[in-house]
Design brief:
This protein is α/β, with parallel strands linked by helices and about 290 residues long. The chain has a single domain, classed as Rossmann fold, CATH 3.40.50. It has 12 helices and 10 strands. It has helices at about 25-35, 45-50, 95-100, 125-130, 150-155, 160-175, 175-180, 190-205, 220-235, 250-255, 275-280, 280-285, and strands at about 55-65, 70-80, 85, 105-115, 115-120, 135, 210-215, 240-245, 260-265, 265-275. Helix 5 runs parallel beside helix 8 (about 190-205) and helix 8 runs parallel beside helix 9. The two termini are about 25 Å apart.
């Protein structure tokens, strides 16, 4: 399969003799990403990259906030049990893609389907309840004065009966012993990694098919970052969750993801497998620090 990507043939990785690589200026990066934005992968290229019968299909998505359009015709395809990572410069519209899929941004045009069902105009609550889409916020969303169990139960507020939320919470505690040990403790005593685990676990209470994950490593120490990605990998590989994430640590995100998209100025300018993007010298030069 031909990789779905924008222009290639960028400069090599740089000196291999131990000399320090030159640091690109902000203006140089801006010019380079503008060149990438001139040509990007087509819709059918992106669909093919996701494999047959993608679970999540987003076509010609135009969205923003108020009257400001930030996304200019985004196409996105993600398969069941696969992870797609969005990378790119600040202001590229990465988080806005997640916001729009979940219903947090203003939608100007486009179509979103999950498992063949159109969910474009559903409210965020209905996307969670009916379409199985859950959003894991970028910011610390744990309630520190509530217990770990109470925080988890907050994730089941759309369940028809409280007992269903409790049963789901029990399944989470059975899976994650670190949370079970602190079940009745206030969430404020948790470490950074445990808080992120709690945030992810709270999203699982509604038993979603799709997880939208915004900056899972933000604010975490390196040892906790590895733990968080291990958790996400287990949800993808063992439980078949489809994960669409934005990650500031582009290298870590692409190492985890099956597919990566590079966004620039609200458009997809390059797409390939995570491994291929990691090896791409243009991506390395602009987004991976080398």
């Amino acid at each position: 399969m031909t990789p779905a990507r924008g222009p290639s043939g960028g400069p090599s990785d740089g000196p291999s003799d131990g000399r320090e690589r030159p640091v690109l200026s902000v203006d140089a990066v801006a010019r380079a990403v503008a060149d990438l934005a001139a040509e990007g992968p087509g819709r059918e290229d992106l669909r093919a990259l996701a494999g047959s019968d993608p679970l999540v299909e987003v076509t010609d998505l135009r969205a923003g906030y108020g009257r400001m359009e930030i996304l200019h015709g985004i196409d996105l395809f993600a398969g069941a049990g696969k992870a797609l990572c969005l990378i790119g410069p600040n202001g590229a519209g990465k988080s806005t893609v997640l916001h729009t899929i979940f219903g947090f941004a203003d939608l100007f045009g486009g179509r979103i389907t999950v498992a063949g069902e159109e969910v474009t105009r559903l409210s965020s609550k209905e996307k969670l309840r009916r379409a199985g889409i859950a959003y894991i916020l970028q910011d610390n969303s744990v309630f520190p004065e509530m217990t770990v169990e109470e925080n988890l139960l907050m994730g089941g507020f759309l369940k028809n009966r409280p007992t269903e939320a409790r049963q789901a919470a029990d399944r989470v505690f059975g899976k994650y012993g670190r949370l079970a040990e602190r079940r009745h403790q206030k969430a404020g005593v948790l470490s950074g990694g445990e808080r992120r685990l709690l945030e992810i676990s709270r999203a699982l209470i509604m038993e979603p098919k799709v997880l939208l994950v915004d900056e899972p490593s933000i604010g975490l120490e390196p040892r906790f970052i590895d733990q968080v990605f291990e958790i996400l990998d287990d949800l993808k590989s063992a439980e078949g969750k489809t994960i669409i994430l934005v990650e500031q640590n582009a290298k870590k995100g692409l190492e985890f993801a099956d597919i990566g998209y590079v966004l620039v100025s609200g458009r997809v300018v390059m797409a390939d497998t995570g491994d291929a993007l990691l090896r791409n010298p243009e991506v390395g030069r602009l987004f991976l620090g080398g």
